[in-house]
Amino acid sequence: MENFFSRYKNPLVLMAVLFIQVIALATQVKRAEDPKAANSGGTRLIRVWTVTAITPFERMLVGTGHFLRNTWHNYVDLHNVRKQNLELQQEVARLKMEQVRLREDAYQAQRLQALLGFKERFVGRVLPAQVIATSGSEQSRVISIDKGSHDGVRADMPVITPDGIVGKVKEVFPLGSQVLLINDRESGAGVVLQNSRLQGVLRGTSGGGLDVSGITPDEKVEIGEPVVTSGGDLIYPRGVPVGTVTGVSPDRDNGTFLAVKVKPAADLNRLEEVLVVTEVADQIPAVAESPAPQRAADILAERLPSVSKPEEDAGKPATGGTVPSTSAQGRTGTQSTTGKKPAALKKDATLPADQKKTPGPTPSTKATVQGVAASTIPGSMAKPKATPSPTPTPAVTTQHPAAPASQPKGAPSNQVKRPKPQAVSGAVAPQQPEATDSGSQQPPAPVQERPPR
Amino acid sequence: MNGVVSLTSREEVDVHHFSWPVSLGIPALAIFIQVYLTRQIHFIEIFDLPLLVTIFFAVARRRPVPGMITGALIGTVQDAMAGIPIGLNGIAKTMIGYLASSLGVKLDVDNPGSRFLMTSGFFLIHHLVFMVIDLGLVGASQPWEWGHNVIAALANGFLAVVLFAGLDRFKQRR
Questions:
Q1: Which residue would you say has higher pLDDT here, B16 or A163?
Q2: Closest CA–CA distance from residue B69 to any residue of chain A (Å)
Q3: Does B95 contact A14 at a Cβ distance shorter than 8 Å?
Q4: I need a labelling partner for A281 at 20 to 30 A (CA). Which of A172, A247, B47, B102 fits?
């Protein structure tokens, strides 16, 4: 180093002296940044140089700082973005769960509304129950519900849904019950084909299907024909939908009869809420046929004098009846306009015919449907039969001769009205107007009423 | 080897010293004349007496450092007296002092012809450096006029021959 200075002493001194003078010169000289703004006084050259000399380093330092700061901020932001992303994903998951829950609630509300409507149409006291388990085996088709003896559930109580029957209570526990489905092999129910009025016994198959046995091969069974309960088993209310006929084949167990395959109306594999019929009212539906399903309240409103409209009262014939004429016409002649006291109820008009067609111990022979009120009959039951029965039922003594032509033969027995409907829970009319057999002028015979089960 | 010996011998023979009054008085006088007399006698503007004095002392001393310092001081004072940014003449005369002292070691600068050429050449260099600094650092624009500059260089060359002959009397030998 010493040799370097001694060797290059003169050039180094020259550079130092020049440097000092340049600095001195720069401290004095002012240069305008913009020639047009020369009058503004300009900036000292030393400042320009200093700034010019420092600016690159400053920019480098600032740029480095910005780079590091941006890098850190980006990292922090990225970290925050990830965190925020996780939070948003959790929020989305929570909202999805909430959406699913709300959707389930909506579905449940719809189902409950359907159940409520169903209850309104059925006489009797029903107990909504939640399906909480299934047997999990194909050997037995049993479901568990969350209602037991503490809730009033008893054995052999029918279990239904708005679509149709489900089964009956098999075992009852304090806080739950087991329901034997109708498609179990050990299950059975008395049913009747709604159009042909053929009665049979509904049994479950090993594959989970439904067969109606007890129908002779000479009977004509149509595919798609609705099947309803006959009420003869003393378990299921009469007229509850069971399903539709999907096929007819010879009965393997008993070759003399047919095995009518039935598709259950209720989706037995997707049951969530069911109704346990805890009480079946001993009232036969007063409205047997209706052009369209009507609510019980509407029917009662039409029947009750208090709710009749003035103009309707003015326009109705002077028959002394209290029922508007429209209602009488709409009931296809099944309504009486006598306005008298409730007449005694006859026995099930279809019993003789059913007895003929049911070779087995069809309970309908003794069946007096007790619990189904007029206002609670499902629409499917209240509809007039589309096709007349191939086997006329002359035993229908309640059929009035002057009944409309649309009234098919073999009208269901629920055309018979009971004089004093009992007040039951639900939408059952407490006060039934006087009603007799549809158009029948004969005094109805008293019916032995069975006590409610 | 011989060259080196000869140069060493020449340096030892021709290195001169000046007294402090001469070293201070002659440059001050040259600056005074250059600054104040040019206001009265305009043709003197073509001469650059401080530059000539710088060249004379640098060549006579044959030492770069004293030569450049002499040029720096003379140029700075000249700038201060002339009212121009300090450093223009200082930088230019510093370089001339360095070059002149460096050149004086290798050449015989006591010859009038070499003095003429040397001075003329340094004048042009000085003017070039001055213009570059003035243009580059200060920002002024001064056109380069070859004819005027050459004439001025020749005039300063002639003046240097005369001036240096008179100043040789103030040389002191060790």
A1: A163
A2: 8
A3: yes
A4: A172
